UniProtKB/TrEMBL annotation:
<keyword id="KW-0285">Flavoprotein</keyword>
<dbReference type="InterPro" id="IPR037396">
    <property type="entry name" value="FMN_HAD"/>
</dbReference>
<feature type="domain" description="FMN hydroxy acid dehydrogenase">
    <location>
        <begin position="1"/>
        <end position="143"/>
    </location>
</feature>
<dbReference type="InterPro" id="IPR012133">
    <property type="entry name" value="Alpha-hydoxy_acid_DH_FMN"/>
</dbReference>
<dbReference type="InterPro" id="IPR000262">
    <property type="entry name" value="FMN-dep_DH"/>
</dbReference>
<keyword id="KW-0288">FMN</keyword>
<dbReference type="GO" id="GO:0004459">
    <property type="term" value="F:L-lactate dehydrogenase (NAD+) activity"/>
</dbReference>
<dbReference type="Pfam" id="PF01070">
    <property type="entry name" value="FMN_dh"/>
</dbReference>
<dbReference type="GO" id="GO:0005886">
    <property type="term" value="C:plasma membrane"/>
</dbReference>
<dbReference type="InterPro" id="IPR008259">
    <property type="entry name" value="FMN_hydac_DH_AS"/>
</dbReference>
<dbReference type="GO" id="GO:0010181">
    <property type="term" value="F:FMN binding"/>
</dbReference>
<dbReference type="GO" id="GO:0009060">
    <property type="term" value="P:aerobic respiration"/>
</dbReference>
<keyword id="KW-0560">Oxidoreductase</keyword>
<dbReference type="InterPro" id="IPR013785">
    <property type="entry name" value="Aldolase_TIM"/>
</dbReference>
<comment type="similarity">
    <text>Belongs to the FMN-dependent alpha-hydroxy acid dehydrogenase family.</text>
</comment>
<protein>
    <submittedName>
        <fullName>Alpha-hydroxy-acid oxidizing protein</fullName>
    </submittedName>
</protein>
Length: 148
């Protein structure tokens, strides 16, 4: 809590993969947390971010914003994360691929592609508003905590 007082701005903690760490983040007054395994580069055996998301949202999602980072490559990935309770997602590689291929215009194109894919995926699931999306759009057995 002391760091939030010193900072004065919003405190967002990234790198959360564990329910207990999520609870600690909420207890210390963080405004949001980001479920992330840092691209899987720090610890080879770390679980994927999306596999940890449902339990973390269940534990602290009513107290703190929960975002997802890692594995977001398409609009469908964004939709799945939102259906599992994330308030938003972050991307790393897609915009870098765009930058490498076409510079600034490539970054814009990569983001446009993801946004378009998200719109189409939502429409195919019968939704117009991302805030209405929930786990009902996911097949049972395709996410942690569900059974086939």
């Amino acid at each position: 809590a002391w760091i939030k007082k010193c900072w004065g701005g919003k405190l967002i903690i990234k790198g959360i993969l564990d329910v207990e760490d999520a609870r600690l983040a909420a207890d210390c007054g963080a405004d949001a947390l980001v479920v992330s395994n840092h691209g899987g580069r720090q610890l080879d055996g770390a679980p994927s971010s999306i596999s940890q998301l449902p339990a973390i949202v269940e534990a602290v999602g009513n107290r703190i914003e929960v975002w997802l980072d890692g594995g977001i490559r398409s609009g469908q990935d964004v939709l799945k994360a939102m259906a599992l309770g994330a308030k938003g997602t972050m991307i790393g590689r897609p915009h870098l691929y765009g930058l490498g291929a076409m510079g600034e215009a490539g970054v814009t194109k990569a983001l446009d592609i993801i946004a378009r894919e998200l719109d189409v995926s939502m429409a195919l699931c019968g939704y117009k508003d991302i805030r209405e999306v929930n786990r009902e759009i996911l097949l049972p057995g395709t996410f942690p905590g569900s059974t086939a």
